[in-house]
Specification:
alpha/beta; 5-stranded parallel sheet; 5 strands; 12% strand
Length: 134
């Protein structure tokens, strides 16, 4: 089982978020027991911007058991199609957002996505298995 990890889960853990940190950490541990933990370049970049330039976030992510898995062509195109559908439906974002890239990556290169943003991913990536921390 390959679990793609969303930025919000990692920020919860790394910042010790009082509301979501414990549940996100427990969900990450459960996912790690099931198999590999991966994150695409969008997640890596979003997490790094929260801490740059003071810390080498890549080391912290590896300590959490995360492996960097860049998007492949299918994932990038899946993200683009989801974003195009969003725009046709009246969405106002003029540029593709990281959430679409993360969803495309999880859909094509993982078995599920661990995130707190369940509504967005379920709406735009039909068929993607979304796990929410308990």
């Amino acid at each position: 089982m390959i679990t793609a990890i969303d930025t919000n889960i990692l920020i919860d853990i790394l910042e010790g978020d009082l509301e979501f940190g414990a549940a996100s950490a427990a969900a990450l541990v459960r996912a790690a027991r099931d198999g590999a933990l991966v994150a695409c370049e969008a997640v890596w970049a979003e997490v790094a911007t929260a801490y740059a330039p003071a810390v080498d976030v890549a080391d912290d992510l590896r300590v959490l058991g995360l492996r960097f898995l860049p998007m492949n062509e299918d994932a990038a195109l899946r993200a683009a199609h989801a974003w195009a559908d969003y725009r046709r439906a009246g969405g106002t974002r003029r540029r593709i957002a990281a959430d679409f890239l993360i969803g495309g990556h999880a859909t094509c290169q993982a078995d599920r996505l661990l995130t707190r943003d369940e509504g967005f991913h379920r709406k735009h990536f039909t068929g993607l298995r979304v796990e929410i921390p308990a």
